[in-house]
Design goal:
The chain contains 10 helices and 2 strands; from the N terminus they run ααααββαααααα. By secondary structure, the protein is mainly alpha-helical.
Amino acid sequence: MTTKIKSAEHLEEIELNKLLKYLYQNKLWVYYLFVRLGVSVALRYSDLSQITWEMVLCKTNLILKEKKTGKVREIPLHIELTDTIAKVYSQMGCPERSSCIIPLHIRTINKQIKLYAAKAGIRGKRISSHTMRKTFGRLCWDRNNQSEACLVRLSSLFNHSSVQTTRIYLSLRQEEIQNLYMLQDMFIY
């Protein structure tokens, strides 16, 4: 018998904000920044964990070499995000600028983020470090009217081999199939 590995799910916007609020109110700064940055820049844990304070403090762009692909990425940093990073930096007592923002192992992140999500009232979701990247994709897709053009751009951003891969990655395919069964208004006597 083979066991299917269940992949991480995205968070809905309301769930994302519940989690961020919980982390902020409880001053769980590293996790707060992990979620905030993860959703804002759509990077994998392996890339988020190499970001140092000096790479993002007072910057308009984040430039880094992706661990998995080896590609150099330049990611614009929204002013609201840079302000948030600066405030958290101050709240954390201004750590060494050359130190990593996310100095935690992926297993620690995954274990704790599930726990904090549950404490924030988010239940029934498979949450991991990869949830943030998927949440970015789903929020982009939703905010772009679920357009095919957005999927093409996301496919490129995620470095997927096809738009179909991006559909699967964002769990769109299964939702689209399930929506085919929504025929309630057909049966009018």
